[in-house]
Amino acid sequence: MRKRILVAIVLTMVVALFTTTAFAARRGNVEQVTKEQLLKMMDENDPGLIIVDVRKGTDWRASEFMIKGAVRLKLSKINSVKYPKDKKLVLY
To answer: Is the model's pTM score more than 0.90?
Structure first.
């Protein structure tokens, strides 16, 4: 019984490690910004800033928090849209 529990724990840890590594690798060179950094960019009226709301429709409709000026886009469509490379694209 203890051996099965130990095996289950080890397998869980391996899966968790693999998943974490896989997500980190997928992110590549994507810079993350804090809420404070985004607010500063918005306060400065950065013309190169594009904010994209990629929340699920149900989450978006249920939320009372929406960023003014954000573009609504399904996350599944993000790769099909062509944004200028000189713009700062912020997804939330």
So the answer is: no
**Region 52-71 average pLDDT:** 87
- pLDDT, tens digit, for every residue of 12-47? 766 665 555 445 545 567 788 898 998 898 999 888
CA distance 88 to 50: 6
How would DSSP label each residue in 3-64? HHHHHHHHHHHHHHHHHHHHHHHHHTTPPP--HHHHHHHHHTT-TTEEEEE---HHHHHH-S
Q: H or E element: which one contains 91?
A: strand 88-91
Locate the domains of the chain by residue range: 1-30, 31-92
